[in-house]
Write a structure and sequence with these properties.
Elements: H1 2-7, H2 14-26, H3 36-48, E1 59-66, H4 82-92, H5 96-104, E2 107-114, E3 145-148, H6 166-185, E4 190-196, H7 201-212, H8 216-219, H9 228-245, H10 252-259, H11 262-276, E5 281-283, H12 286-298, E6 306-308, H13 315-324, H14 340-358, H15 362-365
Parallel strand pairs: 1-2, 1-4, 2-3, 4-5, 5-6
Helix pairs in contact: 2-3, 3-14, 5-14, 6-10, 6-11, 7-9, 7-10, 7-12, 7-13, 10-12, 11-12, 12-13
Organism: Micromonospora haikouensis
GO biological process, one term: cobalamin biosynthetic process
Biased composition (Low complexity): 124-140
Length: 370
Amino acid sequence: MLHTTIAAIRPLDEPAMVAAGELHGRLTKPAGSLGVLEELSVRLAGLARSCPPPLPEPAAVAIFAGDHGVHAQGVTPWPQEVTAQMIGNFLAGGAVVNAFARQAGASVTVVDVGVATPLPPAVPAQADGPPGDPAGRPAATRTPRLVAANVRPGTRDLAVTAALTRDEALAAVETGIRIARELIDAGAGILLTGDMGIGNTTPAAALVAAFTGVDPAEATGRGTGVDDPTYARKIGVVRAALARHAPDPADPLGVLAAVGGLEHAALAGLILGAAARRVPVLLDGVIAVSAALAAVAFAPDAVGALVAGHRSAEPGATAGLRHLGLDPLIDLGLRLGEGTGALLALPVVTGAVRVLHEVATFDSAGVAEK
């Protein structure tokens, strides 16, 4: 599945991008006056191979959840059980991501790809699941669903041994590809990345450092807000893990296996699956960015499907976005994860495309040009 997905990913379509740029020049506004929105809409036209590109709706948030053996190194004060408890909160609709999803009209799918604590019965992924709905209800009014796809109950401790085997990492990547296909087949016009996993900013920092070459201190942040001793220990854990495993960025599956998390690998698969179908992916924070680095290492043209939703307060996110050549749409100092920053950026993406669909040209509106 991974190989066929990568083979389906193509570069952005130059004629569609040229057409979108020319259309912007004919719309009733000064050329270039919408700044980044014009660049974004042109790139989305290239992704879709059409001008104008389809409106990025409905939106589907995919929250991949997993636990981490590196938790044993004291990189976070939060107990590991919080991962499963927060999944319960997602399913009950009580988390920040749920509030923002209701505001944006987005569906929420939670995928257990590696949670250590047993979870309630899951709803099997189906072609007629979110964001489509047989009752025709808006996405935001439906109950979030849980998909069971647990590869193993948490990773191994990356400070001691490889976090995953190559087969486990591959299984997680292909889970992400399947979820992307299911959400797109159900009608999603854009996928938003979400994540949940206590301790997951530590493997994210290791992935960022491995793929970008930045120093672990530049890739590692305070996550949930750890104190100075914990922060120093966290940097040391990342540095030691990279020295122990020496992951090769030319072997993205090997990097994910050595120092990644199951949710990171699944998010990389989600990105690849969407890119193969020419559907945009709106990235959230540092977990998504670290996964995007892996996805682009698998398939460089996958970067064309990526939109950076926001600049996370985690420094690894900035380092990763710089490596990918992506500029974030908003910068609010967020570091929550879950998909929250991506949801807040969603109206910006939709607005960028809507301009090409709905704004009149100078000729059609009878407005004189300069």
